[in-house]
């Protein structure tokens, strides 16, 4: 069980982050939910989860595109035994037409935020004598697709950072790993179906079948519950010597 442990999950009011947060809370961890918004429904989500799982669940607003807010999230959490760097966005466009502001935002949110939160969390993990850093990278941390230059760059960067943190903490009871999911049907993927259809000049149904799941030999979406299970495994004693590496959950994508 994760009783007495605090898990901070960035970008966790939706999708994979929320799925991992729910898995951690179900195992008894105290959970810190996060996004850049500060809506009633964000705080209500934390209340509802606390009631459902009987653990402490807080929502802390922080914008993961800002270095100081990344670090402030960890400071405000007060404890961080498990850090899940999950916040991420996507934009699909050819490189020579890729909007500069989208490039900067993707690099900041999908990659730089993991540097800042990890830098802030490692001293807390060292003090506590245990820690897990789990980076939600992507199959795009290991493989490329056209029109996703910023995303593929950021996710490859996160996989690189994962190896470095694994080495820097190798002699300590701390591990750092990246989960590399294939396609999961979350708002992030739903949002890129129209763009993909446009780039390829096909219908949205064809975009799902022929472009998105084309890469995924299982022809099935990965689920957030499966990713929650993998995150819990990485927190288990069985995974104590797994560090500085990646775990793919991609229906065979990266076997190709
Ligand atoms: P999602 O859009 O449902 O979730 C993204 C989360 O990040 C949301 O909670 C959102 O509020 C938060 N977020 C966005 N900008 C933020 C900011 N500036 N500051 C703080 N939080 C911010 O998408 P998802 O699919 O659940 O994506 C979660 C992670 O999983 C991302 O890193 C994504 O790259 C990765 N991923 C997704 C898939 C997939 O197929 N959905 C596959 C591989 C990896």
From TrEMBL:
Q: Which GO terms describe its biological process?
A: monocarboxylic acid metabolic process
InterPro entries xref list: 3-OHbutyrate_DH, NAD(P)-bd_dom_sf, Sc_DH/Rdtase_CS, SDR, SDR_fam
Enzyme Commission number, as recorded? 1.1.1.30
Entry keyword Coiled coil: no
List the Gene Ontology MF annotations in alphabetical order. 3-hydroxybutyrate dehydrogenase activity
Main EC class the enzyme belongs to: oxidoreductase
Instruction: State a single Pfam family of this protein.
Output: adh_short_C2
Q: Which UniProt keywords apply?
A: Oxidoreductase
PANTHER family referenced in this protein's UniProt entry, alphabetically: 3-OXOACYL-(ACYL-CARRIER-PROTEIN) REDUCTASE, 3-OXOACYL-[ACYL-CARRIER-PROTEIN] REDUCTASE FABG
Q: Which family does it belong to?
A: Belongs to the short-chain dehydrogenases/reductases (SDR) family.
Q: What is this protein called?
A: 3-hydroxybutyrate dehydrogenase
Tell me the organism.
Thalassococcus profundi
